Amino acid sequence: MATAIDHGAPPVAPTRHPGLLAFVAEVAALTKPDRVHWCDGSEAEAAALADALVAAGTLIPLDPAKRPNSFYARSDPRDVARVESRTFICSEREADAGPTNNWRAPEAMRATLTPLFEGAMRGRTLYVVPFCMGPIDSPHSVIGVELTDSAYVVLSMRIMTRMGTAALDRLGSAGAFVRCVHSVGAPLAPGARDSAWPCADEKYIVHYPETREIWSYGSGYGGNALLGKKCLALRIASAMARDEGWLAEHMLILKLTAPDGAVHYIAAAFPSACGKTNMAMLEPALPGWTAETIGDDIAWMRFGADGRLYAINPEAGFFGVAPGNGPATNRNAVATLHANCLFTNTALTADGDVWWEGLSETPPPGLIDWRGRRHDPRSGEPAAHPNARFTAPAAQCPSIAREWQDSAGVPISALLFGGRRASAVPLVTEAYDWAQGVYLAASIASEATAAAEGEIGALRRDPFAMLPFCGYDMGAYFGHWLRLGEAAAAAGATLPGIYLVNWFRKDPQGRFLWPGFGDNARVLKWIVERIEGRAAAEDTPIGRVPAADALDLSGLALAPGALDTLRGVDPRLWNEEARRAGEDLARFGDSLPEALRAEQRALEARLAIVTGGA
Ligand SMILES: Nc1nc2c(ncn2[C@@H]2O[C@H](COP(=O)(O)OP(=O)(O)OP(=O)(O)O)[C@@H](O)[C@H]2O)c(=O)[nH]1
Ligand SMILES: O=C([O-])CC(=O)C(=O)O
Ligand SMILES: [Mn+2]
Fold first, then answer.
1. Which residue puts its alpha carbon closest to atom 14 of ligand 1?
2. Is 224 annotated in some ligand binding site?
3. DSSP three-state, residue 491
4. Cα separation of 96 and 522, whole Å?
5. Among the atoms of ligand 2, which is closest to the Cα of residue 224?
6. CA-CA distance, 369 to 358, in Å (whole number)?
7. Which residues pair with 539 in a beta bridge?
8. Cα(285)–Cα(326) distance, integer angstroms
9. Separation between Cα atoms, residue 57 and residue 63, nearest integer Å
10. pTM for this one?
11. Ligand nearest to the CA of 223
12. How far is Cα of residue 62 from the mean position of the Cα atoms in its chain?
């Protein structure tokens, strides 16, 4: 086994940053690891870690002839998704966490966590993982340091972030960094055998927005454990963005080039497992159009001196839902996964490769399912967990745009918001203006998916697709969006258009009315033409929908009547929608901006006119 990781001598820290040295010393004193290892992010280090994880049974190497340098992990079956009920925002004041977050007083939470972390890394290695969210040379990037006892987390962070020496160099000897502490919560007694996926029953995913700290306990899974992603780049970053005048959003970033060569960048927010990665890698069904990928999950945006809204992707990899990705839906994702990837909770084939529902029409024979059991195709159970994930370097994506690491970011023309809605919500709706767009985004709802615990399919309000990810009071967050738009407009900016989209409308038999995926380019074309002032639209109470002949449907055979349903706004359904949205927004009490109350009243008034009642 390679020995680049473990050696008896005390490690020499590769930094003289006093705050970082003190942080590592404090956490090591608390958690009592056997060793401390400072990660440099090198190939040799990754290879040694992978070897150790294979020896421990955590990783299974895939056949290098099929998928070089790629590994498969099966998690504990109780550790397969984010745990929103165990995710906490510990601001000093309860009101600052808002009604949608779990709040605990910081001192009380620290008093709970300290005994849990006490000795939590016994028998394990504490890995020091310096990482940079955003391009190494971008002024908008943020440095974090994650101290973790999971080598799986280290390997994942190496794919998902700029990790190791480069991040430490950027931090320098005095820079600011976000303190991140992670333990799987499974100390090892001397001589005890480790489990393949150590974790604890009791999980805590804790954020202290004022001190910009993250403490995560008990889970090894994705969004709970890779602390640069949801915890830093959304929950902590949203609080930083509020204080500093920018936006940290759950959005993909797409570059779209029209046949005439015009380039538009589009950012889109959909809840977890609702199509961000797919849209980020879209292959347009319309001839002459090109789509390229900038990011698939998170966008950090700020208005530039020229009045345009610039976005960077803070991540360096994709942590994507595997099921559903196949040659018919997302060829770019499939091609991205050819090498250097981690797969978690997919199925394993008899010949040493991975498989999931949707990768091919029928499962190959001899599959082992995500629980490690022989898969029986007649059981009706999927072979891959519905939230099985791949972890893949973004640079490997065939559709990655050459400017994806541009330090200034890319200028956004349109902001899309959506969710999974079987009924009511049209295919695409243009907001009348910024404030009404903020209202539409604040009132989106979506049918729950397997990306978090809870009943799948249940409708829940998910404002801005940020419900699980906003690190402060969402009422104040809506106000932040409104103020940024007002300030930019006052300074003469042309604000991006705001659009509500829904690819998931169904007919009474439960079939999708819209083909989705590459055909979503038809909607993007309409949006681009709207921005350029060339496409026709019709006013409805909720916003503008495409005129009857305004969508390019060439080469597409929709079911009879489908287009009318997709463009339609049923006033009776929308009376109910508006009532429910208003009820949800009322939860924010005094922090709900007056402008959104006014939008609510205006929507109700427009609906009353079309239904002919009050
Ligand atoms: N019907 C339909 N399904 C889609 C479409 N786009 C994506 N999906 C499905 O939605 C599921 C999730 O898609 P992703 O693109 O991975 O979702 P995501 O928003 O990136 O998810 P997170 O990584 O959890 O944030 C997959 O099963 C896709 O096949 C679409 O346009 N139409
Ligand atoms: O954070 C995760 O575990 C995966 C993810 O992207 C999401 O749920 O939005
Ligand atoms: Mn996501």
1. 275
2. no
3. coil
4. 41
5. 3
6. 15
7. 544
8. 16
9. 16
10. 0.97
11. 2
12. 26
